[in-house]
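User: For a benchmark we're assembling, each entry needs the component sequences followed by a predicted structure for the full assembly. Here are entry 17's components. Please fill in the structure.
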Amino acid sequence: MTASAEKAEKRHRLTTRVWHWVNALCLLVLLMSGLTIFNAHPRLYWGEYGAHDDYAWAAVGSSQTLGYVRVGETKIETTGFIGNWRDSDGKIQTWAFPGWATIPSYYSLAEGRRWHFFFAWIFSIGLTIFMIRSLFNRHVQRDLHVTRSEWRPSHIWRSLKDHLRLRFHDDGTVNIYNILQKFSYIGVIFILLPLMILTGLAMSPAMDANWPWLTDIFGGRQSARSIHFIGMLLLVSFFIVHMVTLALAGPFKQTWAMITGGKREGSADA
Amino acid sequence: MRKLLTRRSLITSAALGAGGLLIGCDALSRSPSFQNILASAEDANFLVQRALGDRMELASEYSIADLSPTFRANGTRDPGTADYAESATQGFANWQLKLTGLFKKPQNFSLSALQSMPQRTQITRHDCVEGWSAIGQWTGVPLKLLLDLAQLQDTAKFLVFHCADRLGGRPYYESIDLLDAFHPQTIMAHRLNGEAVPIENGAPLRLRVERQLGYKHAKYVTGIEAVATLDNIGEGKGGYWEDVADYEWYAGI
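Assistant: Structure for entry 17:
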């Protein structure tokens, strides 16, 4: 690569930027409409079946006076937040997730499903295009590929310590992503996001007829539903860490770079 | 820089953002034209799912060991009418299944006639749109056998299932297309787990259309009407829940 070509290169390529924001919108709508769907039956099981009388490994309890989340045998009271909360009219509602967290904000399983499936298509197509494009424009090979030196435990340990000290930039390297960023981005893009699509499809009765192996590999429809929900929690955790590191690393500069492309660090003029 | 971002301001701005988003989303949800855009994804689901496989793929079948301890009932648990109650006390001996509409030879089957025809037994998973599932063993006469006797006219495109129960004052009904009607797992079931179908699960006759969600599986079926279009039935969306709560007509996902 010539110096001038390198100089002209953006820190984030156009595909990465467009996908990032399309994906952010999709995941937000998918999360909130997914909570509407979850509200129709706020219990999670393992295996092929599970209904109201069966043991749920996680459940939301609701009444006019109490709301709680139960995971295994541990009950956490969530009155006022989950299972029992006040709507904007001050009326107590007893569906699991409150209106401010769901799309639509009122309870409609049919509308929640419409939002969810429409944005699931955009999300899936977007992810597929991003993956293919990232292979061809070498985003994967150059920015996400973990080099041999990065695999050294000492390197990972040093990066971990830097993070804990809230130092986010590996000094003197041209990589735009450090090893922990690479691990989390690879994990999210190539494992977690595809897993969300596959576990989603595994819950569909027609897909179960067409591709029974898909439901089988997750251990049944209810297991797929549980994994889909856990995957959602992991994505929310990723989002929170993403926001905290963004806030600490300079939110305006970083966000601006993700909109305009920014300038690649370590390029010819650095 | 770090001081700018307090926990309070983060929460406030997140709540404002979410609030704005929700007002927008609710407005869009209530807009019929936006609903049509969202619903286009359902058409895509239907087309893609129908394009996969050979269109006659069977839903997964299970063994006796996989049966769920109880088979949950949803929707109507008892039609509650005098006629139905009387029929139940007689073990549904007078129950009739009428095949009407676009048939060359409309038929009228008694329950015992249906029971004496060739049967199919299948252990399948019932997937509710709400998210729960139950596994049950269903025995019944394949719908195809009934359709062969009644002989569909060429203009018939859908089958409408009329039911003895009413929900919220409206008669329950459902509909499927001919591809699902002739599917080998589509049966008019009269036995669940080796017993007569319990009243709460749709006695004496329930449609099983295994590759779709639970609300398609009409209970207390009294009639099957062959039609060219669903426009003139109910509110024209093809089923009770479709009319009342905007559920999708195609319930494969």
